[in-house]
Design goal:
heterodimer; A: alpha+beta; four-stranded antiparallel β-sheet; two-stranded antiparallel sheet; about 30% strand; B: alpha/beta; two-stranded parallel ribbon; 16 helices; 7 strands; about 60% helix; about 10% strand; globular
């Protein structure tokens, strides 16, 4: 049984769906703006599941009214990092929530190296597992589709 | 990971029968949308967009400004006709809607910009219809590399609405060649050209200085389609503005106060730093102050609503404008 049927990294929302088109991304951004979320653009070339903090592309965008402003930054980021993973993150500043409420990938490299499972034999017959990205041995910037 | 290790329903168009159902519903949605948008007369467009109501309101609420109102009607007419052409499938390039508002202080540039945003929103030329009012400080940074992010942030905030740049000529400082204002202008120009659907820019300021600004920035001038010049108010208009302002705050002039204010205006217009409607508002604020201290002195009286809302002639005649005029007359 395949564990990942879509053949791509599945993190955040919509990742089991076909890739969102730009108008669809705009609609999601509009939804967030209507709820008063602050969007920000983040990128990485090491999408390890434990890599929670991706690099920020500019500041989080507060006080926006229209998705065009966020899309502008997404396009800038795509131009700057054409072979990186890029995701959009929405922050809800409501008192008591104050955390990320939406997150989805808006760009992924043409070929995604994916991850291998490494088994490490311990004392007795214990096995410890870890996940290792096939691409993460290469230096930064050359990891995917280098 | 190689793409599509095995087929997933919905991952490729037409792969699953469910897709055709969504396709047809999407097509239906598009159809209803065009049916709704396919207005063929001016009144249909106005009824759909309710832009007519805003234009009428503009006519009713704003005193004077006849040439401005006529220009706004012209612009609205062009936009409505463009909509009709679009509905008939005639090519209509997205019109350039950037404007410049020139005129003396207090002639209603900001107020009209607010209404303009509303009209453009109703006609569907901007998506959200909010107004972001900024000056040089909000756009230009203080050190190298500060300007671009600052300007971009303002532009992002204004997307979907109208960006109103007050005293835009301060952006360009010819006396300092290393001034960062030029950088802000370049970013602004780029967005004005490439993202005409996303925002409308209105530049405002004094007439002469704006003209100098446009002369030294021909790129800016050529990207602005509409130059609106705001005339000064006639004294009669100012009086009507004063009455409207008082009415809104539940005050009114006593009979003699009316004449006194007229006289006040005649003196004030001749003095320096006269700022049209803004000066009127400030004069009324000071008159209210004097009325309040006049009533305050009467500690034991029970005031009627009449007394609390009336501005007497004395409240106006106490102004130093009259004293200055008297001194001037003596000389």
């Amino acid at each position: 049984m395949m564990t990942n049927p879509v053949g791509k990294i599945t993190q955040g929302q919509f990742s089991f769906l076909p890739e969102l088109t730009d108008p669809e991304i705009s609609l999601q951004i509009e939804y967030g703006l209507r709820h008063g979320y602050a969007w920000s653009v983040e990128y990485t070339d090491d999408p390890h599941p434990r890599n929670t903090y991706w690099e920020m592309f500019g500041m989080p965008m507060f006080d926006l009214r229209d998705a065009a402003g966020v899309m502008l930054e997404v396009q800038n980021c795509r131009r700057t990092f054409p072979r990186h993973y890029i995701r959009l993150v929405a922050f809800d500043s409501t008192r008591g929530v104050e955390s990320i409420v939406m997150s989805f990938i808006v760009q992924r490299p043409a070929s995604e190296p994916g991850f291998g499972l490494i088994r490490c034999e311990g004392a007795g017959r214990t096995v410890r597992y870890t996940v290792h990205g096939y691409g993460s041995d290469r230096p930064e910037g050359e990891r995917s589709g280098g | 990971m190689s793409p599509s290790l095995y087929s997933i329903p919905g991952s490729t168009p037409g792969a699953a029968p469910a897709m055709s159902a969504t396709d047809s519903s999407a097509a239906a949605a598009v159809e209803t949308q065009t049916a709704q948008a396919a207005a063929h007369t001016v009144s249909e467009v106005l009824a759909q967009s309710q832009a007519g109501a805003v234009i009428d309101e503009l006519d009713r609420d704003l005193v004077g400004l006849a040439p401005i109102k006529a220009r706004i009607r012209d612009i609205a007419a062009l936009l409505v006709i463009d909509k009709l052409r679009m509905n008939l499938g005639l090519a209509a390039a997205a019109p350039s809607l950037h404007m410049s508002f020139t005129g003396n202080p207090g002639t209603g540039k900001t107020t009209v910009a607010l209404r303009m945003a509303e009209i453009l929103f109703r006609l569907g030329y901007v998506r959200k219809g909010h107004l972001v009012a900024v000056t040089r400080d909000d756009l230009v940074g203080q050190y190298i590399g500060h300007t671009a992010p600052k300007t971009k942030e303002v532009l992002k905030r204004a997307m979907g609405g109208v960006l109103f740049i007050d005293e835009a000529y301060y952006l360009y400082r010819p006396e300092n060649e290393r001034d960062y204002g030029q950088e802000a202008i370049e970013i602004l120009l780029q967005v004005m050209e490439n993202q005409r659907d996303d925002l409308v820019v209105i530049l405002a300021g004094y007439k002469e200085r704006m003209e100098a600004f446009f002369r030294s920035n021909p790129g800016m001038s050529s990207r602005i389609a509409h130059h609106l010049d705001f005339p000064d108010y006639a004294p009669a208009d100012l009086l009507r503005i004063a009455e409207k302002l008082l009415e809104r705050q539940n005050y009114r002039f006593a009979a003699e106060a009316h004449a006194a204010f007229e006289e006040y205006l005649a003196h004030r217009i001749r003095q320096p730093h006269f700022a049209n409607a803004r000066s009127v508002r400030n004069a009324l604020d000071r008159a209210r102050l004097r009325q309040a201290s006049r009533l305050f002195a009467d500690t034991e009286r029970v005031f009627t609503a009449e007394e609390l809302t009336t501005i007497e002639a004395d409240d106006i005649r106490a102004s130093r404008v009259f004293r200055a005029a008297a001194v001037a007359a003596e000389i």
